[in-house]
Every structure is written in C-alpha cells, then in structure tokens.
Amino acid sequence: MAIKNVILLDFSEKWKAYNKILTSPHHLLIFVEKGACAYRIEGTPYVVEKGDVLFIAEGLGRQGEAVNEDAHTKYSIHFTGDDVFQHFPDLNHKAVVFKTASLHSYLKQSYAHMYAIWAKKDMYFKPICEYMLLELIVRIHQESMVQQSSSKQPSVVQQVRNYITEYYREPLSIKELAQFANRSESHIITSFRKHYNMAPLEYMHRIRITKAEELLLTTGANIEKIAMELGYYDAAHFNRLFKKLTGMSPSMYRKLQ
Question: What is the pLDDT of residue 81?
Fold first, then answer.
C-alpha cells in the first residue's frame, strides 16, 4: 500500500460539482469534515454527510453532485495497492459509504495530521502516513462491524456496550457489568464476545486508548495526567497497553502532531 497524495478541499460556497465522468488510477478514501456532498459512481448515487467516509476503488467512473447550497470541507487520501483487500474484501473494486459520525473527532484529527505530515514532507513522512492510513481503515471497518452487530444484537448486549461507553473512565469490572445487566458474569462475557469479537473490558480499553489518542494530539497534558484521566493509575501499564493497541508509545504518537 502506497500513498500518492493527501488533499484538503475546502469549498466555501456551493460545490459546482462536475458532470464529466472522472476515473482515478488510485483508490480514494474521502472524509467529509463539514457539510455534505454527493457522487454518482458507475451510475449509482452516493450521499456523503458530515462524519462519513467514502471509499472509491481505482478505475471507477465518478461524477460530483451538490447536495445543497451549503459549503463543505473534505479530505481525500489517494493510494495504490490491492493488499488491503486481503483483509477487507468487501472493498474490492467497489464504492462504499461508511457512516462514521461516531468517529468524527478521531477522523478529523487523523486526517488533519496526516495532511500536515504529508505537506511538510519530513523524513519518513511516507511510511508514517501509510501506517496512519492502515489504522484509519481498520478503525473505520471496526466501527462498521460494530454497527452491523448492533442491529442484530440482543438488547442486553447493547445495554452493556452503552454502559461501557458512558462509564469507560471508571474502574469497571465484569461483576459490575453483570449486576447492571442482571445476568451472570459468564453470560456477559460470552454474549459480548459473540457480537464484538472481544471481551467487555477489552472493549473498554479500546475506547480509553482512542480517547488517549485524541488527547495526545489535541492537548498539552502530560502522559501521566492523560492516563489518570482515563482510569489508568499506573503509567507504565498505560504505556504498554497503548503500544499494544496502536503500535507505538504515547510519546511517539504525540510526535505525529
């Protein structure tokens, strides 16, 4: 997988769009930060709203269409390589809209930092951006899988997930979650893992680390303070977990600013 360009497009007025059918030799991963836009890809319309991500496989014909009179802002990552399809076959030679408004803050920061790194072109800017792109695709796909699972999951699993999402900073335990759901501990673990492919507390840690990524990039708070804010009172444990889930230490991640 190789990135060819990272572009920021800020339309302060109504997007005039384009009727000419365009094709790209690169895959496109477009994130709409503000407003909305639409494309007609191989004859099929796709509306992309604030917080959404649109993937367009290379070679697909596309036309731009305005949605309304409002301005819109979007980032576009152009990349090559079909190895990504080995892990995400549903993207192969397709156009897909991911409804990722719940990840808006994370996506906004990630795209903005990737754009800044690409524009600056310091040493290792390409591998850093390619690493960030892979993480983006994984996170987008994970959120998509969670949404699909949520539409099918029993209410008790959804209740537990919502409880974790609300109280993830607290020292949650399986015992507490079981009492909340009025189910046995083994039932909570088995049911949650069935729908999310991870245990409830692992899900909690992933939410915490996602928030840590945001805080590292958007605040000047030291790492120990961020760890404590997210419920980790052992900074060394936080560092190990952060590196396990992101592939780099918190201090290295902060240097992506």
Answer: 87
Closest CA to 104 of 129, 140, 150: 140
**Positive or negative CA dihedral for 112, 51, 243, 172?**
positive
Distance CA 31, CA 103 (A): 11
Strand order in the sheet with 2-11: 2-11, 72-80, 27-34, 53-56, 95-98
Q: What is the mean pLDDT of residues 22-39?
A: 92
What does the mean pLDDT of the chain come to?
87
Report the 3 state secondary structure along 123-175.
Answer: CCHHHHHHHHHHHHHHHHHHHHHHHHHHCCCCHHHHHHHHHHHHHCCCCCCHH
Please choose, from the candidates 52, 72, 68, 65, the residue with its C-alpha nearest in 3D space to the C-alpha of residue 22: 65
pLDDT digits (tens, 9 = 90+) for 107-149: 888 898 899 999 989 888 999 999 889 888 888 887 877 766 6
| Residue 73 backbone phi and psi in degrees, to 5 | -125, 135
Which tokens go with 174?
Answer: 């399986």
Query: Integer distance in angstroms from the first to the last C-alpha of the chain?
Result: 23
User: How many CA within 13 A on the CB side of residue 58?
Assistant: 14
Is 151's pLDDT higher than 60? no
